[in-house]
Amino acid sequence: MLYKRSSQLFAEAEKVIPGGVNSPVRAFKAVGGTPIFVKSAKGAYLYDEDGNRLIDYINSWGPMILGHAYEPVVQAVIEKAKLGTSFGMPTELETQIAALAVSMVPNIDKIRFVNSGTEACMSAVRLARGFTKKDKIIKFAGCYHGHSDSFLIQAGSGAITFGSPNSPGVTAGTAKDTLLATYNDLENVATLIEANKNEIACIIVEPVAGNMGCIPPVAGFLEGLRQMCTDNEILLIFDEVMTGFRLAAGGVQELLNVNADIVCFGKVIGGGLPVGAFAAREEIMNYLAPLGPVYQAGTLSGNPLAMAAGLTMLQSLNNDRAVFKSLAEKTAYLHAGMDKVLKANKVDFTINRIGSMISVHFDANPVTDFKSAAKGDNENFKKFFHGLLNEGIYIAPSAYESWFLTDALSYEDLDITIKAVDKVSKTF
Ligand SMILES: *Cc1c(COP(=O)(O)O)cnc(C)c1O
């Protein structure tokens, strides 16, 4: 495939935008080459500036769960835009999406909308600290919770891909309040809690990790965290920015039947517009300004265009819950197909999958935490990435990312993908 125009556009972008991109994960630094510039997208396909069509397994990193340019969302945004794009005053729409979200997600009474997953996680931690009157937090190596200071300690995909696990600019003072634990290792968490008795405000976790590839929790891990939090008056924060409204209508809380104290959302909840949210039971949420002492605000929070897109997306998912089953079946089909051809081609690999999240790791051992995820063969991944791209298939340009399937994918698309995986893995 030709990427002439994309390369030219990237050269222009590099002059005026650091690295040519507005988010580092979009760069091709880890795989070589230059990023693809998108012109448009519809359903399961991206159309780039050179006229190539790509089957998309990123889907804007999750939001386009029902496909690109999903008609009801597009219509809702157009209609809202005609009525004004921002007021900085309350609208009925905000209550409608809040009520729907609260009805779909277990264990929450109130929700506040923000503009990104980063904001949601940052605000959730501030709320947890204010509510518990404690300072320290526990996060897991390889989990990503956005780019706010407290979280940029071994923060998964983007940060790992670019070789800066701990970002300069985060002060030692901030870093010392973030305790780092190993994913899927309860003993490690217990040790940290014991060593910091009565100092830990919250444990924040991706209940299914998606920023070091897809890593589901091992049996008992989330339940163990829940118990430790309850026993030690620590709030459990599920960062469901990736998993919320994707793995089930009620996210991982519903799928795996474990209750969190605070839940963070992003990605799908905005239907492709910039939206994040955090939610909890009433007692906790009432700690937020203007009711309570913990301050949190946003000029464009609850923006009508964003709320119209999000509400329409949630309504679609709520009205057709079979979509989660359909997505999981398509992902299982892709898994089985790739498994077969990779085995036939004698590749060392592990495929992790849950619901509509899946990742291929080029290492034969189980991938259960950041350390095991980091063992994958990056040379094979580069060949895999560029090989698939050449066959018209777009996966994330990093070995540390999950794939996010869209229900717009047909079984024919999946067969094309499996065939491409077969062809490409023969060249390893
Ligand atoms: C994407 C992501 C975030 C950050 O969301 P942004 O909207 O990019 O700020 C936070 N947590 C998880 C689990 C994510 O996948």
TrEMBL record:
Q: Which Pfam families match?
A: Aminotran_3
Q: Name one GO molecular function term.
A: transaminase activity
**InterPro entries reported in the protein's UniProt record:** 4pyrrol_synth_GluAld_NH2Trfase, Aminotrans_3, Aminotrans_3_PPA_site, PyrdxlP-dep_Trfase, PyrdxlP-dep_Trfase_major, PyrdxlP-dep_Trfase_small
Q: Which cofactor does it need?
A: pyridoxal 5'-phosphate
A Gene Ontology BP annotation from the UniProt entry: protoporphyrinogen IX biosynthetic process
**Key words of the record:** Cytoplasm, Isomerase, Porphyrin biosynthesis, Pyridoxal phosphate
Its chief place of residence is: cytoplasm
- Enzyme group, top EC level? isomerase
Which Enzyme Commission number(s) are on file for it? 5.4.3.8
Domain of life (superkingdom): Bacteria
- Known catalytic reactions: (S)-4-amino-5-oxopentanoate = 5-aminolevulinate
Signal peptide coordinates: none
Query: Which regions span the lipid bilayer?
Result: none
The UniProt similarity line reads:
Belongs to the class-III pyridoxal-phosphate-dependent aminotransferase family. HemL subfamily.
Q: What is this protein called?
A: Glutamate-1-semialdehyde 2,1-aminomutase
Organism of derivation: Flavobacterium segetis
Organism classification: Bacteria, Pseudomonadati, Bacteroidota, Flavobacteriia, Flavobacteriales
Q: Which gene encodes it?
A: hemL
